[in-house]
Amino acid sequence: MTETLFINARLIDPVALTDTMGALLVRDGKIVEIYETAPDAKGAQIIDCGGKCLAPGIIDIGVKVSEPGERHKESFRSAGRAAAAGGVTTIVTRPDTLPAIDTPETLEFVERRAQADAPVHVLPMAALTKGRMGREMTEIGFLQDAGAVAFSDADRVVTDTKVFSRALTYARSLDALVIGHTQDPGLSKGAAVTSGKFASLRGLPGVTPMAERMALDRDIALLEMTGARYHASQITTARALPALERAKRNGLNITAGVGIHHLTLNEMDVADYRTFFKVKPPLRSEDDRIAVVQAVADGLIDIICSMHTPQDEESKRLPYEEAASGAVGLETLLPAALRLYHADMIDLPRLFRALSLNPARLLRLDAGRLREGAPADLILFDPDAPFQLDRTQLLSKSKNTPFDGARMQGKVLGTWVDGDRIWEKS
Amino acid sequence: MTFRAKHLLGIEHLHPTEITTLLDLADRYADHNRRGVAHRDVLAGMTQINMFFENSTRTQASFEIAGKRLGADVMNMGMQASSIKKGETLIDTALTLNAMHPDLLVVRHPHSGAVDLLAQKVNCAVLNAGDGKHEHPTQALLDALTIRRAKGRLHRLSIAICGDVAHSRVARSNIMLLGKMENRIRLIAPPTLMPSGMNEFGCEVFEDMEEGLKDVDVVMMLRLQKERMDGGFIPSEREYFHRYGLDAAKLAHAKPDAIVMHPGPMNRGVEIDGTIADDINRSVIQEQVEMGVAVRMAAMDLLAQNLRAARALPQGIMA
Questions:
Q1: Tell me, what CATH number does B54's domain have?
Q2: How many domains does chain B have?
Q3: Chain A contacts of B201, Cβ < 8 Å?
Q4: What predicted TM-score, i.e. pTM, was given to this entire model?
Q5: pLDDT category, B38, cuts 50, 70, 90?
Q6: How many percent of chain A have pLDDT more than 90?
Q7: Strand order across the B218-221 sheet
Q8: What phi-psi label fits residue A176: left (phi over 0), alpha (psi between -120 and 50 degrees) or beta?
Q9: B35 is in an annotated binding site
Q10: Using an 8 Å Cβ cutoff, are B139 and B263 in contact?
Q11: Is residue B254 in some structural domain?
Q12: pLDDT tens digits, B211-262
């Protein structure tokens, strides 16, 4: 029996939405008790948190680990270490690898590699359609038995509504979670930025923000028809929010997420064709950013994720239209999210509701909360500690972060998974 | 010295005094070109490479003549055929060329921002000869010089830019330049060929051509880029000509002394009636070509001066 007592901690509780000083006892990998004042240690190992924040570890849905296929961009080892350093205790991997994760056999490869090399929990997603081609559904039942926690074609939209409605119907019979990418494929074809003044100024092909709402409207109609469990991976525009709100009010089984880059950056950050700011969907206007941050604070958007997408230098050092999309985010997710806290746009419990609690609820995990019986997946962090990000110091194999050189606040001091310390700030 | 730029990548970052400096010099070159005065010492000993990743006859010829008139050693590289097909990236191509120590690099590329990217990787002066749908600065400068010579000024004019604004780098550079010099800009296009957010640039936007042309001093037509019409932006060429082609009836809404411009090459009977294009009392299209050489001479002259000044600095002080 091993016991660890965290004392003098600022406890961030996303369930009760409280931010109070206290202590927390961990025994055999589980949280067993929470105290207002620290009890007698009685032989437990004591960790003095020094008044810093203790919060449930982040559960990041939609992380791209480039195994199989592009291990030079990111491996389970490098992604796992990056996650640990970033305060992410569970990563939910995307199936858009080479090849796609669309059979129980490839899923087993992912689980085996993760088990061997990653210090954090890894839960795999599987593709919804074979090869992510949008034509035939995958073996959803077998994949679920093999451990797939959700089904998604990642950044591809299943354009054939008949295929998608059947997949949703079949998924419902298994109570499987389907994650959708909400971008109308016709309007967004070839787009590199969001349409508007900036796109016109730079002469880049743009997509109207309406493309997101159109795709969300379509998926909502299909949910009404099929009753499936559905999560929209990234809602990034103000115009999509009323549709989301209405669907939730009508009792549909729908949740929504947003990537950290859409909460902290806007289209103008692309400036002179900086390809590290090219993400999918493209960065939006400042008005959209503010609206989406507010939706997270209000709980309309449930989840914040990093949308961690490693890309090597070669795929980014190209003219903007030709450059690859995506940014790494595991290590910058927390300090970037804390920008919203420091800007007084959201408090810490609500931030961790979106980073930890809601992802856990969506995946039906016990983690993501400071509660008796929950796994001791914890992070200790100083929300105020300032630093300047140097991308060469990232643990990810790929260094494609838009925050290179940025002044940020918030350092992870320690990360625990099932009560074991897997990372400590040196 | 009021032209400090290292490269000429676009109009966006030029100051109005820099534009005026360049146009004043180009004006003198234009007169000298007419009189046959040579200036072969200006770029003597310098190497100019024209790198065109996209087809061009006119612009490339104009840059070549400008360089040769100033005494540069000019080399043309047709890039569609060579290294791209072999899979070389733009940056590798840039680094390879840079190792040959050229002094002036003239680049055209089909992607917006590609010339900016290339300029970051080389030590010489880079001139943007058109990048995607972004900028074509020497075209805007030659248009400005043509207007200034025809109208006697380059401010407080009412200027209409008509046609395929959405796909036109010429339009973007002109909007920026003419805006910086405090002119009224009216954009005329079918809504499918008008990029979004243009009113935020301080332009007036018109879908009706006759309304848009009312009392303007300058009518600037754009080429309808047929190769970019893949999405069916307009129903047909003949309907386009009927509604947006410049003919005598539509031109009658402009001021009686309004000039007609076109960056070339023209599609006669699509965006402009042949008789208008050939009307020596209205059309300044041939002058635009003439001013093109003068403007490019001026631009290369100024950039070469800055390049020499930078190279003359002792090592380490500005590094």
A1: 3.40.50.1370
A2: 2
A3: 197, 200-201
A4: 0.92
A5: confident
A6: 97
A7: B204-206, B184-188, B158-162, B218-221, B259-261
A8: beta
A9: no
A10: yes
A11: yes
A12: 999 999 999 999 997 765 555 888 888 889 999 999 999 999 999 999 999 9
Average pLDDT over residues A268-281: 96
Instruction: Pick the closest to residue B108 from A120, A319, A336, A240 (CA basis).
Output: A319
Which tens digits make up the pLDDT trace of B87-120?
678 888 889 889 999 999 999 999 999 999 999 9
Q: Cα(A110)–Cα(A124) distance, rounded to whole angstroms?
A: 7
State the residue range of the domain holding B188.
Answer: 138-283
Active site residues of B: 58-59, 86, 108, 136
A63 CB neighbour count, 10 Å cutoff? 28
The label of the residue with tokens 């401010």 reads: B155
- Is pLDDT above 50 for B319? no
Task: Identify whether A423 is part of a domain.
Answer: no
| A98 contact B CB<8A | no
Cα-atom radius of gyration of chain B, to the nearest Å?
20
Query: Given this model, what pLDDT does residue A269 score?
Result: 97
Same domain, B199 and B122: no
Element (H, E) at A76: helix A76-86
Whether the CB of A320 is below 8 Å from some CB of chain B: the reply is yes
Q: Quick check: A373 contacting B, CB < 8 Å?
A: no
Q: Average pLDDT in the A308-328 region? A: 95
**What is the distance in angstroms between the Cα of B4 and the nearest Cα belonging to chain A?**
20
Nearest to B105 by CA among B9, B1, B5: B9
- Does residue B319 belong to any structural domain of this protein? no
**Calpha distance B199→B205 (Å, rounded):** 7
Domain that holds residue A281: 56-363
If asked whether residues B222 and B209 sit together in one domain, one would say yes
Name every chain B residue with its beta carbon within 8 A of the beta carbon of A199.
195-197
CB-CB under 8 Å, B12 with A201: yes
The per-residue pLDDT for range A206-224, each reduced to its tens digit, is 999 999 999 999 999 999 9
